[in-house]
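This section describes the prediction task in plain terms. A model, or a person checking by hand, is given the sequence of a single protein chain and must write out its three-dimensional structure as a string of tokens. No templates, partner chains or ligands are provided. The sample shown here is typical of the held-out split.
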Amino acid sequence: MVVQYKVYSRQELDYIDGGIVRDFNIDLDYISNNTSTVEITTESDAFKGDIIAVMYEKEVVLGVITAVDNTARKISFKHMKEIFNDKVINLFLYTSLLNTKFEAVAGLKTILTYAFITTDDPYKKLPMTIRTHGEEPNAVYTDDNKVLGIGDFITYVFDRFNIYLDFAIDFVNNQIVCTIAKNTTGGYVIKDNIKLSEPQFDSNELPAENKVSFFNANNGNIVGEYFLLSNNTVNTSRIRSDRVLPPSTKYVEWDAADAAEKGYTMQQLAESELCGNIYNHCILYKLAKRQTMIKCMDFKYGDSVTIVYKDREYASVFTGLKFKMKDAYYTCIFGKTRIDFTDRMKLYNDRRYAKRGGF
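The expected answer:
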């Protein structure tokens, strides 16, 4: 199997160079945005910020170059959302483009367009077309910071609303195509009988917060309570059997006048505070590249997945994929928490795979 790479300039998408890949370590973790590497055979004219495309079998992995080491013949890169690693004035505070209550897919498009398409900085402007798929009508954003971290906001809409960025390159029109997608895909099941290894669970299987109590800042009185349900929605009933337990409470100040002025309800704010916390865990699962029951490269970020292990079901979402060129397996990553991720990976010694000798 011959693996190749190509590099294109950030501003015009002109072809810079390409060649053979001797080895690679691909890390497509959407939450952590870790560094991937390719080892190449000759020096490269690539530069930090350029776009790299790695052609692996029938797949193309795109990324933004973060470093080029021609002595070691190695190129480092990150997920394509790294191209938005910048800050912008908080559009929720200082412009009329966004309000506290907004539609999250269209809102993210507004921010990216303002920062990278309509900008008057010629070196920040990107040759980009932004498309959208789906919508999230109940987003509320209450950050009062004067400057908005775009990367942080991208993580926010994925964590809360399962909205992610998908990338492709249109070489006919020399455009980066960024699709902002609301993912509602579900139904994937991973059972014990297709595993390559036992899954590794972190110690945090439960949501960090599954109850939000709104209080009056003047007197401390509770004015509303919402509870996270097992289907990742919220409800006001304390006695529902599908409440996520045990209770873990987040207290949020409620200002009814401010909410009325800005146009959001208490339930909408509760959804913004709690939704996504049901996936506050990290599950690592190694699956053979050659098995056909689960096609790991077909997963999209935010796909809902049920993992069946020792007669227990874990509801989760797909959030990343790690694989090396010469390994016979993919490491699938589920969940939206990354606590001591590197340490967990070091401890993850798959003896069962080593004994089998590969697939």
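For orientation: The domain at 87-182 is CATH 3.55.50 (Phage tail protein beta-alpha-beta fold).
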